[in-house]
Amino acid sequence: MALDEAALETLGLGTMWVRRGAPSGQGVVEDEPALEEPRAAAYETASPAARPAAVQSVEAKPVAREPESQSVSAAPTESAPGDTPVRPVPPETAKTIRIAPAPEPEPLDEPAWDDFEPVPPVGFDPAPASAPAARSADIAALDWEALEARVSNCERCRLCEKRTNTVFGVGDRAGDWMLIGEGPGENEDKQGEPFVGQAGKLLDSMLRALSLARGENVYIANVVKCRPPGNRNPEPDEVAQCEPYLQRQVALVKPKLIIALGRVAAQNLLKTDASISSLRGRVHRYEDVPVIVTYHPAYLLRSLPDKAKAWVDLCLAYDTYRQAIPNDKARS
Ligand code: URA
Description:
Layout: H1 5-10, E1 28-29, H2 37-45, H3 51-56, E2 71-73, E3 96-98, H4 133-137, H5 144-152, E4 170-171, E5 177-181, H6 186-191, H7 198-209, E6 218-222, H8 236-253, E7 257-261, H9 263-270, H10 276-279, E8 284-286, E9 289-294, H11 297-300, H12 304-324
Parallel strand pairs: 5-6, 5-7, 7-9
Antiparallel strand pairs: 1-3, 2-3, 4-6, 8-9
Uracil binds next to loops.
């Protein structure tokens, strides 16, 4: 399968990506040995002295900020015959492209995916002592149908009061990949499905760039299942009340990899108030599943430079996924 150039185009990376042997356009193709994408990214972003170590252990070493230039690694190009179409392609032909140096902006934390209301101070509060742990325990035993029914009737927090629909989750319930966002917005609340607006379109492009597709080996859910009014961030107690549902979804899907979409999702999954910039570039764990953190697609719609960083995150996700699956499933 050819790389979906349209997907990279949508990601805003089309002009940065150059097929091997093609004119380089605005980027300069370096004839360095091909590396797997995340390792290439690590190589590129490390200082020369640190490069061997960086390439050897992407997982142990966060992808550092590029001091002189931004780098983007080329995407997988071809599938082997007989492979499942949704599988990303081995990156033997990965090329690293250095684009013209751009002034490095101040490290920005990602704003909320919608700006209706000011972002409250960041802080993670654990579940309040009053959380009804007993009522949560039985959720861990529900099957898909019972779980979905329970969510659609849920009144565990105040978000139920203003919702139109609960937004349970969508996709392949046996998918290897699980994408977790923050919570439904207006369109999602109306339609009862996650990521159906513009951000959802960008998310679909991000998936396509990895040779994945919504519903094919991918399950998409949110930290909270009901829309926070005015698109505010969910409150800690709302997240706590909803978490048993997400935990059960993860237990049922048994994904090989989770991608946390945006700061709010990442902080709540990982139980931290660390900034998204500090969480990116490392492999975390949720319910013992590897987690990669990237920017929320709604934020990326407004930030072209961070689309390139999101691509680096997706490459790390792909590499981590390949390490997590059995050898016979992974292409080498
Ligand atoms: N943003 C999210 O985090 N989730 C959605 O489902 C839609 C927008």
